[in-house]
Specification:
Helix content: under 10%
GO molecular function: ureidoglycolate hydrolase activity; ureidoglycolate lyase activity
CATH superfamily: Ureidoglycolate hydrolase
GO biological process, one term: allantoin catabolic process
Number of helices: 2
CATH class: Mainly Beta
Largest sheet: 5 strands, antiparallel
Radius of gyration: 16 Å
Catalytic activity: (S)-ureidoglycolate = urea + glyoxylate
CATH architecture: Sandwich
CATH topology: Jelly Rolls
Strand content: 35-45%
Oligomer: single chain
Subunit structure: Homodimer.
Strand order of the largest sheet: 3-11-8-13-6
Keywords: Hydrolase, Lyase, Purine metabolism
Number of strands: 14
Length: about 170
């Protein structure tokens, strides 16, 4: 069984899959940043839900503690952001091949701690695991992608905006 080493989330390491959230603010005069003694704010990312649709915020509770991964999912029309709130997650990602299947040579696993996050590019394959009983995450995604995935998971109807793919099982270490 192939092994995926879990690594800490870092901007350079996750760039093929998306944009890291939780980096320090830029101090080069960026127009979208304000730093002051009582508070700081800065733009991390301009989210693209795809057109024509709106972004939505989901509350997601992860409970899967199985440190093996045999299934990945990807969303075709939208970026998707995941931000852990109550504990760390292990987030497995892979790029897509030209025929929109997971490129297993690009599989990586990142530990994402509270105060960090990842905005995945469209077509990024992913799965999430936790090492504690439950972790709540904020997710930013496309409203129609959520509706489409819920219908697929409840009824088995074909998903139109997402894909789920069985892969050779990989163990997280």
């Amino acid at each position: 069984m192939p092994i995926i080493s879990i690594q800490p989330l870092a901007a350079d390491a996750c760039s093929p899959y998306g944009t890291m959230l939780g980096k320090p603010p830029r101090t080069d005069g960026d127009e979208s940043a304000f730093l002051s003694p009582p508070s700081d704010f800065w733009r991390e990312h301009l989210f693209d839900p795809g057109t024509p649709d709106t972004a939505e915020i989901l509350w997601v509770r992860y409970r899967n503690r199985d440190m093996s991964v045999g299934t990945l999912e990807a969303h075709d029309l939208t970026e998707q952001a995941i931000v852990p709130l109550t504990g760390s997650i292990v987030h497995v990602v892979a790029c897509s091949t030209p025929d929109n299947t997971p490129d297993l040579s690009t599989v990586r696993a990142f530990r994402i701690d509270p105060g960090q996050g990842l905005v995945m590019h469209p077509h990024t394959w992913h799965a999430t695991r936790v090492t504690q009983p439950e972790v709540t995450c904020l997710m930013l995604t496309r409203a129609s992608t959520t509706r489409d995935l819920v219908i697929h998971l409840r009824t088995g109807a074909p998903a139109r905006e997402s894909r789920i793919c069985t892969i050779e099982t990989h163990r997280l270490d």
